[in-house]
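ok, trying the design again with the full structure, not the truncated one.
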């Protein structure tokens, strides 16, 4: 059991390399072990193919015969854009499989494991299940709940202010915290902001870590009134970095056409009430487009809207050792909370020092 856990931990580490790069597929890790020695390893490649098992089998070649396969998610059993991984493992001659988590996709959901067992392969389930579930929370949310996992990222003062009254916000947190935030962008399929943030900050929303060569996250702007300037950096670079604009129906056609001609994908979302986008419906639409993990970077209106609609799954809150007072812009706009029984509660996962700043991470309590 200790050996199984050790090799599964290795597979989980491999799987984390694919986060933000594999949507709409999950990020999976696979390690092939024969006679106590690793003979092949792999993780899901950018764009979702080839799958982790195929990469590991190609590396192992003939040494896969008689090996144990450690896989973080149940091998697929259906023909999609590639043949079933369960069949590939059977054909390679593995004799045992250790699977952390079943794949809830209706096309799989136990069928891959059943196929392995029908072929005479011993299958052990559940080793590393909690870590595998956490790692692929975005994929699981999309399959089971119809929407991506939403992580809210906030950078504030100790008293929860994200900008001065004039809108100045660069930089509340330090360089090290900003580097961590860029790393978070790399592990998400998309980065989302509201129109106020897009206008005030004119951000790029790209991952700019030194040496980074992976896929850039899709940039999403929630803009019900088509306020995003056509001269903004997001619009100017939309042909090189995927950029989506989520707006309300019946917007000005000429402006919508201008966005499209600049390379933006325009999505018309439902209206929750007059002039307000139905964020739950918009997230379901984004899930249908294949997104599994969204990092929300602002601003206070969008953050409050998502929290108030119970659509935030995780929070990454950076706090600088500073205070601004009531003149500053609060991290969250009013949410209509009148009594304590209506506040939104989260479980603290970790507190980490990042140079002079603090990073607190939270997640939605398990029901």
């Amino acid at each position: 059991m200790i050996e199984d856990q050790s090799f599964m931990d290795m597979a989980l580490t491999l799987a984390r390399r694919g986060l933000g790069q594999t949507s709409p597929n999950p990020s999976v890790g696979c390690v092939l072990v024969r006679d106590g020695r690793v003979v092949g390893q792999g993780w899901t490649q950018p764009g979702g193919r080839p799958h982790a098992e195929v990469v590991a089998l190609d590396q192992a070649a003939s040494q896969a015969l008689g090996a144990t396969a450690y896989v973080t998610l149940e091998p697929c059993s259906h023909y999609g854009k590639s043949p079933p991984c369960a069949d590939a493992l059977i054909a390679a001659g593995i004799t045992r499989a250790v699977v952390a988590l079943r794949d809830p996709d209706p096309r799989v959901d136990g069928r891959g494991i059943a196929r392995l067992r029908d072929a005479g392969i011993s299958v052990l389930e559940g080793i590393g299940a909690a870590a595998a579930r956490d790692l692929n929370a975005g994929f699981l949310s999309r399959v089971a709940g119809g929407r991506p996992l939403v992580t809210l990222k906030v950078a504030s003062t100790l008293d929860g202010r994200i900008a001065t009254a004039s809108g100045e916000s660069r930089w509340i947190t330090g360089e090290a915290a900003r580097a961590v935030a860029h790393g978070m962008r790399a592990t998400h399929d998309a980065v989302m902001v509201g129109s106020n943030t897009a206008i005030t900050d004119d951000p790029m929303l790209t991952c700019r870590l030194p040496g980074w060569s992976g896929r850039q996250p899709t940039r999403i702007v929630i803009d019900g009134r088509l306020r995003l300037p056509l001269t903004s950096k997001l619009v100017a670079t939309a042909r090189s970095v995927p950029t989506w604009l989520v707006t309300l129906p019946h917007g000005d056609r000429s402006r919508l056409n201008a966005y499209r001609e600049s390379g933006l994908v325009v999505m018309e979302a439902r209206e929750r009430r007059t002039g307000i986008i139905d964020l739950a419906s918009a997230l379901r639409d984004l899930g249908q487009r294949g997104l599994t993990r969204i990092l929300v970077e602002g601003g206070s209106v969008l953050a409050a809207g998502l929290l108030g609609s119970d659509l935030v799954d995780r929070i990454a809150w950076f706090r600088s050792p500073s205070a601004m007072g009531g003149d500053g812009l609060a991290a969250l706009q009013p949410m209509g909370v009148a009594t304590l029984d209506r506040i939104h509660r989260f479980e603290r996962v970790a507190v980490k020092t990042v140079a002079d700043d603090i990073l607190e991470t939270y997640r939605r309590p398990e029901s």
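Keeping the full-length input from now on. DSSP finds twelve helices and 18 strands in the chain.
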